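User: My collaborator and I are trying to settle a disagreement about how two of our proteins should look. Neither of us wants to argue from intuition anymore, so we agreed to look at predicted structures for both before our next call. Could you fold the first one, then the second, and keep them clearly separated?

Assistant: That sounds like a sensible way to settle it. I'll keep them separate. The first protein:
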Amino acid sequence: MTASSLSAATTPEPDAPSSPATRGRLTISERVVSRLAAKSAASHPAVGARSGGVLGVGANQDFSALPPATATIAGSSASVSVRIGLRFPSDIRATTEEVRQGIITDLERFAGVTAAPVDIQVEWLEAAPPARRVL
């Protein structure tokens, strides 16, 4: 008997997956849903957040920071609110709709939560730097 045939003979077969009703319960906290929403919003290249400062004074516009997000869960649904900043000029309506759809898709994919409504508050706009002129 070879080593591989011996291990195959002594290793038990994995059990078939049990039904979802017998596996237990999964609870996803509002904090996790909020964090997923913030990361989803921040993944859009035109979205930023405020960072630094004390009590909001002296905060900088930062396109690498996560925007603040809150979520309230009721069953398998969540209402989400996100506060963002945007690069300007841009189509604000189209950009916020892209962010909203991204949040809805990511929450469904990663947490199994249906997000409705998703409120987005645009708090600030950052203008593109002026083009340099050559004299």
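The second protein, kept apart from the first:
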Amino acid sequence: MKEKQFWNRILEFAQERLTRSMYDFYATPAELIKVEENTATIFLPRSEMEMVWEKQLKDIIIAAGFEIYDSEIKPHYIFTKPQSTESPQVNDTNSVSTYDYTPALPTIPYSETGLKEKYTFDNFIQGDGNVWAVSAALAVSEDLALTYNPLFIYGGPGLGKTHLLNAIGNEILKNIPDARVKYIPAESFINDFLEHLRLGEMEKFKKTYRSLDLLLI
């Protein structure tokens, strides 16, 4: 009984601490396996999730431990779920993200969005150098209009910028299939601008890009 109370309290704290998308990505898939000898064994399906749990959620595990067990409970993370282990039931009424969105224009076929389907948050490799970029990208995927608008991600080649931008677009389309999303490399965007300028069609250029719900460059 205490394990269920302990885990539910952790998730309540996590909902207050994390954005909706971060909660869905880092907290929802996690499972409490057991609490034994002042250690909470927590299953994480991806090893890269441990960094966020250690840096952003460890203190709430300790706080929940004092509240429920009246002692300090330290986390131990495992990445292979033991068989025949029933995790505590969770009273989470907000496990599914909700969006209030009504498209004003026809949708863009996925083949014309410029996105690559293989790039998602699930297969992005997270490290010490990009944890905040991932958090910001997740926040944008949760709220198109209000969070980090615009979002600027800077870094050298091969660090995952393209992957993150595609992941944002794919996550938005997963939750809002009618959203008008466009991913375009900076060089292609400039070339498109210059071509419209040469043809004297700047109004068409403006209309095209202003009609988008999400522009990823």
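Some points you might bring to the call about the second protein. The chain has two domains: 2-78, 110-216. The helical segments are 2-17, 20-27, 49-69, 131-142, 161-175, 186-198, 202-210.
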